[in-house]
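Q: Hi! Curious about what NADP-reducing hydrogenase subunit HndC looks like structurally. Here's the sequence.
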Amino acid sequence: MEKVNITIDGIKVAVDKGTTVLQAARQIGIRIPTLCHLEGINKPASCRVCVVEVGPRLLASCALKAEEGMNIKTNTQRVREARRAVVQLILSNHKGDCTTCPRNGKCELQSIANELNIREVKYEGEISKSEIDMSSLSIVRDNEKCVLCGRCISVCSDVQTVNAIGWSNRGFDTKVEPAYGKLLGETVCTNCGQCILVCPVGALHEKENIKDVWKAISDDDKYVVVQTAPAVRVGLGEEFDIPVGNRVTGKMVAALRKLGFDNVFDTDFAADLTIMEEGTELLKRLEKGENLPLMTSCCPGWVKFVEHNYPDMLDNLSTCKSPHEMEGAMIKSYFAQKMNIDPAKIVVVSIMPCVAKKFEGEREELSYNGLKDVDIVLTTRELAQMIKEAGIDFANLEDEKFDNPLGESTGAAVIFGTTGGVAEAALRTIFEITSGKELEEIDYEVVRGIEGIKEAEIELPNGKKVSAVVAHGLGNARKVLDMVKSGEKNYEFIEVMACPGGCVNGGGQPFLLDKEETDVKIERARAIYEEDKALPIRKSHKNPYIKQIYDEFLGEPNSHKSHEYLHTHYVKREKF
Ligand code: FES
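A: Let's find out. The predicted structure is below.
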């Protein structure tokens, strides 16, 4: 690679041709503040917070390519004043309710203003007015806080290819909103929440349900049961200054008991159940040659994406409910029966790394006998908020274990939290069930990692090969489906997670300022695979409590009873 020699703040450095000044500065440990920039995703150079001095000019370092002999200064009086002026202008048109904002303390604008020592806003004038859009069941939009960085548009359009929001109007009236004046809840939005993760301020956040949970816990007539998804345990600690990539499973369980939940269950149990149901469904479809490829249905963002964009492929989606909905259904039936509790008194709370699960929880078809499978969904961030509100010293909690019988799980279930996990878990079980042989090498490295599309193949004892593909991020999912529809590719099994990296990077996971997103995905996934390796049982069909639930209640996978409780259907939705 051709190199160019530049000087930044007196330090000489040779960087690859094409490197931006911002990247070059980061390479040698010089920090330049940014707001609109999002490496690899959003490069409009619109905010100008990242200006640097090059000769007589002030230029945006995120868009400035390093050129031979360039002499760059990042920390002069002129640079500092320019950055301050830019941030003051942004603040002059920003709703200033920082103390009550959901991003208080985690806001990039707040942090930059503090870093630049801004103690007053010099500019006064008209402020843009907008109604708060509460139409979505998952996401709230408050345009009065929007800084027009465009990150949400880039991630929604370029990464996810959903195009639910875009620019409208011009000049002072410029806004980010859905086309044709629609509200977010009326659009093709999949509720993945990636827009929330990239928003630097509080213009986008999840619909909060914390008060509903406190209310249920304080109601003596309710039996409140909580379940947690696998990715929550590798994200929650970050909210309590525990470094990224650490699992806090035991502390999380202890905190949930302290909050007052009557039982603490693990959604991983239902992930094992999903493998039993979905694996059997796949084998039946292979036998009959029907509705192939089978597409996973664990991710509600992906399911809604298919409903809007590929309604002709709804029969390809697995009919399995997602794991937390299965767990909810089993809590209100099997568990309620076992404990002699009136299911109508049970409130099931799901703690998810995801905001789309809030939408999913309200789907009419996800209920039984008029009772919703899951009553309330909280994100990892909302759980952290409850723990803080309750004054629990999270970091110093003694580890506790999940309750049983719906709290025992395997390594196969844990890896549902990252891209490739569902496929790997399914492959482990399908091989053993069909061959009757013990699978020696169970780590399917080929479906791991953050490559956007990954392919794998296993051979069944009858000689039939099952070809699987794993995609994460809806842009990659679209590529896979388009290849299948055009006949370019032929798969039997498709796993998709809507969020890039899978649930570890879900829209409900903690915000991290000053951390490259890719590092976070990799670190959280590493923690998930470590748990898988450490568990004594790593295949879903070997979970003794799974055997027990089939013996005592469901009969067998895909039985009439399991169809009643654990399977669902989908609806066609408008494309626009
Ligand atoms: Fe460079 Fe916004 S971060 S212009």
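A: A fun detail: The longest helix spans residues 267-288.
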